[in-house]
Specification:
Layout lengths: L6 H17 L4 H14 L8 H11 L11 H4 L7 H7 L2 H10 L10 H10 L20 H16 L10 H9 L8 H9 L2 H8 L7
């Protein structure tokens, strides 16, 4: 029996879809699936079964659910965020987990810890420069770190109110140069080695969302 799905998650689907569509292109989850599979094959992260990968990809759709509690004026701002606005934005992982923890029935979900880990830690960075907990290196769950990388890549390739979409080479250059925070050196090396055609199926043409 497949225990990935849960009635409480199905109730949260509309909220998840809203936050996902306003944060990412439709390519985010397919890209995450490819990266998880590739990184497992290259032994950059511990081995995952096909079912494990599928589950993480499904649960990743809830990673930004905390943004539903944030002001639209911040989420859709066309200019650079002020320091206080950035501080508010950085509350969304904790707000998301607070929402998940407020649903008693969801605590019986077999993958509740996986869900909360993805939601809370998808902005952590290898050097401890992320948020909200400042986790470093191996303290970040490997598949959550891949969610973070896919999250950052898709954000760069997707047009936002405050920026145009970047090309593949521009996005990779920024990720490798630390412009989006530090990622695992092994993951960055593997990312650089992936041919542009790996991404072309999803990002042949960047689209504006949100």
């Amino acid at each position: 029996m497949d225990h990935t799905y849960h009635p409480s998650l199905q109730l949260l689907e509309p909220v998840a879809q809203d936050t996902l569509s306003n944060s990412h292109s439709t390519r985010f989850q397919p890209l995450l699936h490819r990266l998880l599979t590739s990184f497992c094959e290259e032994q950059v992260i511990p081995a995952m079964t096909v079912e494990d990968v599928r589950r993480v990809v499904y649960l990743s759709r809830f990673h930004d659910i905390g943004k539903q509690s944030l002001p639209r004026s911040i989420l859709q701002k066309s200019g650079k965020l002020m320091l206080e606005e950035r501080r508010i934005l950085q509350q969304h992982p904790a707000l998301g987990v607070r929402l998940l923890r407020s649903i008693p029935a969801l605590r019986q979900y077999p993958y509740y810890d996986v869900l909360c880990d993805i939601c809370l830690h998808h902005h952590e960075r290898w050097d401890g420069g992320g948020y909200p907990d400042g986790l470093t290196g191996r303290h970040i769950t490997p598949y959550v770190h891949v969610v973070a990388l896919a999250d950052a890549y898709d954000a760069l390739r997707t047009a936002r109110p405050y920026k145009p979409p970047l090309s593949h080479s521009e996005a990779v250059s920024m990720l490798c140069g630390g412009a989006c925070g530090a990622f695992s050196p092994e993951m960055i090396t593997c990312l650089q080695a992936l041919p542009e055609g790996f991404f072309a199926a999803y990002y042949g043409e960047a689209r504006k969302v949100g």
